Amino acid sequence: MNLEWKLKAMLGLAKISGVKPYHQMTPQQARRLDKRPRNWLTNMVMGKPIPLPHVEDIKIPGRSGEIPARVYRPTADQQHAVLIYFHGGGYVVGDLDSHDNICRKLAHDSGRVVFAIDYRLAPENKFPAATEDCFDALQWVAQVAPQFGGHTNDLALAGDSAGGNLAAVTAQVSRNHNGPRVAKQILIYPATDASRTYPSAETFANAPILTRKDIDWFKNHYLNDQEEKFNPLCSPLLGNLNNLPAALILTAEFDPLRDQGEAYARALSQNGVPTHYNHYPRQVHGFLSFPPLSGQARQAFADIADFLKNDAVVGEERLENREESR
């Protein structure tokens, strides 16, 4: 794979160190690996956390109990538009800490108040627990945003991987149930259709970070039965795609989920949803977590910030293959 050289070196070191793929671990083992303490090496790979004037852990009331969340404010004394972020991790791993760097950078670069949502994880909480928590969080944030320096005039949802799936699903659920009006959705290498296998899942079955067997492992922990793969709450590509928020969809070249993201972008555009689709060459699933190693990751953050700062895109789908940023 023709990866950016720093990213390729990091992945090579991870392989030599004996880090197991997800499908060879239990959920508990995967979570322990995900919670490795920060040190000089993690700062070198993922970057140091960007300091912000106000970061606060809160609890959101949900139908099944309190939902942990974290609020990131870019300034302490102004009102800003709100971005709600759902972390990735295949519905099985990930939490507020695993995506803290990403949320800090999004708040800093976009000038938005970011609410990160720590939804319930599988297999302890099967489908549709995560979708319920995300919609409950959206409804609550829309009501109380001013208390945290936010406003919902240009409310946006975002997430990566499984979180991208949950952002897409939450946008549909909110439209279907007369929930808060969502203006924008940002789907970062999202899972959008569990009902079938796409070519990229076969071509990159053994890709770094995420393999096809990993995807099956995550789905088997998340779903109660195979029929749920056809439910739009699991596969938003199978849902009603009319009257949805303007979308920015990002995919990576060497990612088994790549074709799902592209398929969702095209389907949204065909249904009249203003859509930007950015494809990033020489990248793997999860590359936004490694901005010190990837010029494309830095470009992707800039693209997200531009999308959030500007008016919703209009007109036909824009398909971009981002040139390498150095």
Report on the structure:
The chain is an alpha/beta fold. The chain has one domain (5-93, 101-249, 259-268, 283-310): Alpha/Beta hydrolase fold, catalytic domain (Rossmann fold, 3-Layer(aba) Sandwich), CATH 3.40.50.1820. It contains ten helices and nine strands. It has helices at 5-16, 27-34, 40-46, 100-110, 129-144, 162-176, 199-203, 212-222, 258-270, 295-309, and strands at residues 54-62, 65-73, 80-86, 113-117, 150-160, 184-188, 246-254, 275-284, 318-321. A nine-stranded mixed β-sheet has the order 1-2-4-3-5-6-7-8-9, sandwiched between helices. Strand 7, helix 9 and strand 8 (275-284) form a beta-alpha-beta unit. Helix 4 (100-110) crosses helix 10 and helix 5 packs across helix 6. The relative contact order is 0.14.
Blueprint of the fold:
Layout (H helix, E strand, L loop, with lengths): L4 H12 L10 H8 L5 H7 L7 E9 L2 E9 L6 E7 L13 H11 L2 E5 L11 H16 L5 E11 L1 H15 L7 E5 L10 H5 L8 H11 L23 E9 L3 H13 L4 E10 L10 H15 L8 E4 L5
Parallel strand pairs: 3-4, 3-5, 5-6, 6-7, 7-8, 8-9
Antiparallel strand pairs: 1-2, 2-4
